[in-house]
Amino acid sequence: MPNNMSKNLKKTDRRSDEIAPKTYNSVSEMVRDLSDDKSRADDFEKHVRDRSVAHFLFGLRCSKDVSQKNIAEHFGSSQSKISKFESSEDDVLRLGDLKLYLDALGMEFGLLVHKKHWTVTDQIKFHARAIRDCLRELRNSAKSVIKIADGVTDRHIGLVSNAVNFIMDSASGLPNCDREFPQILNAELNQECDSDRAPDDNAVPA
Known about the structure:
Layout: H1 3-18, H2 27-34, H3 38-50, H4 52-63, H5 68-75, H6 79-85, H7 95-104, E1 112-114, H8 120-144, H9 149-171, H10 181-195, E2 203-205
């Protein structure tokens, strides 16, 4: 390769390194980094926070490749109303409209009411009890329809395997993880099943 061409390539490489675009984890992070006015970045973040539900619904619609026109037909309204709905603040969204919107996407709307300052531990216990209740429903179905008993058994086995893998994966990242977790988990789970017979009053599906 001629020397002058080699020098040009080196210059090009150096220039591409110098103008390499900066990456951001979110639009809010980009706005805060590029804006000289801190208050403008604060206003933008508030705008995003105030519309978290609407932004979630917009993303959900796009992921299902459903147009605003399709949603509008389900609402029996104009496309402009759906556009306004998707840019509304969370405080003004109506439950009836949320239900209709999700129904148009083939989904159902539900509410979860829980105590203030719900901790991660509280959430884990709530979902564990919800899984327990679902398993009992499956078990009762298997009793009334014998043909599905094998499938229900497979579901139980698969759930146990997945749950143990989730827990072991999390535990493996804990500092000083040198305990015999399988034996401890077995004892703890048996104790939880005996002590958690009463319904949970910390969180209630509405």
